[in-house]
Design a protein that fits this description.
This protein is about 40% helix and about 15% strand. With about 250 residues, it is an alpha/beta fold. The protein folds into two domains: about 150 residues, SPOUT methyltransferase, trefoil knot domain (Alpha/beta knot, 3-Layer(aba) Sandwich); about 60 residues, Trp Operon Repressor, Chain A, CATH 1.10.1270.20. Strands 2-1-6-5-7 form a five-stranded parallel beta sheet, sandwiched between helices. A two-stranded antiparallel ribbon has the order 3-4. α4 links the parallel β5 and β6. It is elongated, with a radius of gyration of 23 Å. It starts with a strand and ends with a helix. This is tRNA (guanine-N(1)-)-methyltransferase.
Length: about 250
């Protein structure tokens, strides 16, 4: 899967390329990354890529022409690519979006904006989708582009070592992940559940589901709203609710 990223700060992506899961995927050719700098498409001595906004106000806006040229060149080498602009005005990027992009295998051109944003005419003419990684403002779209790439690339076939690693991550089935433990068995008197040490795979699966539901209910109850529960999941939630009610009654007494 190929990513063409348009950015004024290409060196920021060195961290993504040099190490970790994404770095190894790029090295093995499971994903491809090409960086395009709009400054390379300027003709003035200062390599100007921004200008004051019409109507006044603070900040600067990325100019149309350098972005247009960069997008056009990226489209030439990635025909049929989907153009995505990382923007606070975009749809919320989540695990479902990452899974959809990874499954499509479609080439992506990511525009990382800077300053107050980019000329709206670039969006109107070239951008297919706008995505936001959260309700906050960053100094630029580079970090957002790297977040999107990391989330998508790790879902590509062959990227992760274990075939089911991604499927067990948080949010893959709409729940937070369960707790994980490794050796030693005891740390400062805190041990590991006997279920995880018993070797019964069905009991371990049920324990992990129970813990995932409990953690989701405590930390992100919004994820459970509208979720279609299996009979097993509903039984577990009912039991958690009963246990919570019993604890409250004990406190009142």
């Amino acid at each position: 899967m190929r990513f063409d990223v348009i950015s004024l700060m290409p060196p920021m992506f060195d961290a993504l390329k040099a190490q970790g899961v994404v770095g190894r995927a790029l090295e093995r050719g499971l994903a491809e990354l090409k960086l395009w700098n709009p400054r390379d498409y300027t003709s003035d001595v200062h390599r100007t890529v921004d200008d004051r906004p019409y109507g006044g106000g603070p900040g600067m806006v990325m100019k149309y022409a350098p972005l247009q040229a960069a997008v056009e060149d990226a489209r030439k080498v990635s025909p049929g690519a989907k153009v995505i602009y990382l923007s606070p005005q975009g749809k919320r990027f989540d695990q479902d979006a990452a899974r959809s992009l990874a499954a499509s295998g479609q080439r992506l051109i990511l525009i990382a904006g800077r300053y107050e944003g980019i000329d709206e005419r670039v969006i109107d003419r070239y951008v297919d989708e706008e995505w936001s990684i959260g309700d906050y403002v960053l100094s630029g779209g580079e970090l957002a582009a790297m977040v999107l790439m990391d989330a998508v690339i790790r879902l590509l076939p062959g990227v992760l070592g274990a075939a089911d690693s991604a499927e067990q991550d948080s949010f893959m089935d709409g729940l937070l992940d369960c707790p994980h433990y490794t050796r030693p068995e005891q740390i400062d008197g805190v041990g590991v559940s006997p279920v995880l040490q018993g070797g019964n795979h069905e009991e371990i699966r049920h324990w992990r589901l129970e813990q995932a539901l409990k953690r989701t209910l405590e930390r992100r109850p919004d994820l459970l709203k509208g979720r279609r529960m299996t009979a097993e999941e509903q039984t577990i939630l009912d039991e958690i609710g009963l246990a919570s009610g019993d604890a409250e009654q004990e406190q009142e007494q």
